[in-house]
Design a protein that fits this description.
heterodimer, A: mainly alpha, 0% strand, B: alpha+beta, Sulfite Oxidase, Chain A, domain 2, 8-stranded mixed beta sheet, globular
Chain lengths: 206, 340
């Protein structure tokens, strides 16, 4: 019963726009906060951290789509995955821009020097770079151009990105020895990755 | 250089006026606003800070607006060189809601949220070790030990942000002279309150508790090193290290230990909490130094809380946080890139 009504809701025409708005809400909330000065004493730091947090959260949600779809038998979920992936990229772009702008004052020389000098920044930057081809090849024609198999291989980069993102977050928190949140993201992403590995191993056996 | 000249003026030129001469708060607040507007339109930042402070010169540090939240604790304008920066004072709400005090959590909003449980009465500070006159000082005795001064210091956090805070207290040297250190005392160790019942962060293991800091004896004796009991004309809020803390303005903020319970005079260099936790990141001296980067970020610039807008470039960090004229000679001949 529950499953049927959930599937019905997911098939609704309004489902995608609703999700789109939901994904945009953190962004709108941050803009509102920046304009009205409600982000605390250090709004620049707040924006850099919040955009990073939302990137990690959306990355987890995007990667959870397929496991949840298979386990709960909700084929309708597949059509939301691209939007979630693109929103992940949207937030990582905001994160990178916030860092370059609010922290480095758009001094590109300083940004490059910072990336070269600090492993923690380099790891985050690499994750951002690796996510870029995924965003660029997210439309249907790109799948046709690349061929489904090559496209899928390319998009498995997302797991490398996930590992780098958690490492970046871990390093950032290392100064305060404060790993509770890092542990949460690392656990969620590990479970999702294990689910995929299980699938790969099973299909090999079969 | 120019700042120095101004602080000299501040140290020697300010007099307490008669109460009838004191400008009412409403008037000076208003004056402050239009001065700000003029400054924004025409002069540079340094000029505006100068102009606004000059306008209040007759009422001592009238630029310090009390928040009206806690018991008043006022001090005379300090005559110590460098103790009255002309820069714009950080808003009380920012200075009391954004800071590090790990005993209440690692987030910078945690101290303001959780420090209300801190018990500051009764309070005493034990002075022990290599001194002729060790003893336990009750808070009341400490408050009366020397006249209170108001000192407007820059505060530079090792994380890359800064504030300008009006503290109330007196030079730690006043206390040190009274306990008469022995010739063998070379360092001073500061031990802070660590009560898991009232300080939730102490239950976590992010640092070894209690939080410990240290200074060389000559650093501790420097007149700028402040034993502080208040800020913004009031007693210290719990989250800022009530009821008594250290303020060492030329060092990164974590050197200024909060909620002191013990001061110990020792022969060997103490190991401070951050030095123990991450020796490759935090040295014993931790003098503000734009030329020596933290391993994970640059120390060349800083963001002044509440002033540098989102799109403003961060300001350059000054050597010894701008107190080089006063404290530079303490480090003559030392390789500060090694002894960071």
């Amino acid at each position: 019963m529950f499953n049927a009504s959930l599937r019905h809701a997911l098939q609704h025409r309004g489902a995608k726009p609703v999700l789109w708005l939901l994904c945009l809400m953190p962004f709108m909330w941050l803009v509102w906060g920046a304009v009205n000065d409600t982000l605390g004493a250090n709004p620049a730091e707040y924006l850099i951290r919040a955009t990073g947090d939302w990137t990690l959260r959306l990355l987890c949600v995007t990667l959870a789509v397929t496991p949840v779809r298979v386990m709960l038998g909700l084929p309708e979920l597949a059509k939301f995955r691209r939007m979630l992936g693109l929103f992940t990229y949207f937030y990582v772009v905001l994160h990178a821009l916030s860092y370059c702008g609010f922290d480095m004052g758009f001094e590109w020389g300083d940004v490059l020097a910072d990336i070269a000098k600090r492993p923690f920044i380099l790891v985050g930057f690499s994750a951002f770079v690796l996510l870029t081809p995924l965003a660029l090849t997210s439309f249907n024609r790109a799948i046709r151009w690349l061929g489904a198999q090559r496209w899928q291989w390319l998009h498995r980069l997302v797991y490398v990105v996930a590992v780098l993102a958690v490492l970046h977050f871990f390093w950032m928190r290392a100064g305060k020895s404060n790993f509770a949140e890092v542990f949460v993201y690392a656990s969620v992403l590990s479970v999702l990755l294990l689910f995929r590995l299980r699938g790969v191993i099973r299909s090999r056996r079969g | 250089m120019r700042l120095n000249q101004f602080s000299k003026n501040a140290a020697t030129g300010f007099e307490h006026g008669l109460s009838s001469e004191i400008t009412p708060q409403a008037v000076y607040a208003q004056r402050r606003d239009w001065l700000k507007q003029i400054a924004a339109g025409a002069a540079g930042l340094s000029m505006s800070a100068w102009a606004s402070r000059e306008a209040f010169a007759q009422v001592s540090n009238a630029a310090v607006v009390r928040a009206g939240k806690l018991a008043p604790l006022t001090g005379a304008v300090s005559r110590v060189s460098g103790a009255n920066t002309m820069e714009k004072i950080t808003a009380y709400t920012d200075a009391t809601s954004y800071n590090n005090f790990y005993e209440f959590g690692t987030d910078k909003s945690d101290p303001a949220k959780y420090a209300h449980t801190l018990q500051t009465q009764p309070w005493s500070v034990e002075v022990e070790g290599l001194v002729k006159k060790p003893g336990r000082f009750d808070l009341d005795a400490l408050l009366k030990l020397s006249p209170m001064e108001e000192r407007i210091y820059r505060l530079r956090c090792v994380e890359g942000w800064s504030m300008v805070v009006p503290w109330v207290g007196y030079s730690l040297a006043e206390l040190i002279k009274r306990v008469e250190p022995l010739g063998s005392a070379k360092y001073v160790e500061f031990i802070t309150q660590a009560d898991p019942k009232t300080m939730p962060g102490v239950r976590s293991r992010v640092l070894d508790w209690p939080y410990v800091e240290g200074l060389r004896l000559d650093e501790a004796m420097h007149p700028l090193t402040l034993l502080s009991f208040g800020m913004y004309g009031e007693v210290l809020p719990n989250q800022n290290g009530a009821p008594v803390r250290l303020v060492v303005p030329w060092k990164y903020g974590f050197k200024s230990a909060k909620s002191l319970v013990k001061i110990r005079f020792v022969e060997k260099q103490p190991i401070n909490s951050w030095g123990r936790s991450a020796p490759q990141e935090y040295g014993f001296y931790s003098n503000v130094n734009p030329n020596v980067d933290h391993p994970r970020w640059s120390q060349a610039t800083e963001r002044r809380i509440g002033e540098d807008g989102l799109f403003a470039k961060k300001r350059k960090t000054l050597m010894f946080n701008g107190y080089e004229a006063q404290v530079g000679q303490l480090y003559a001949g030392m390789d500060l890139s090694k002894l960071y």
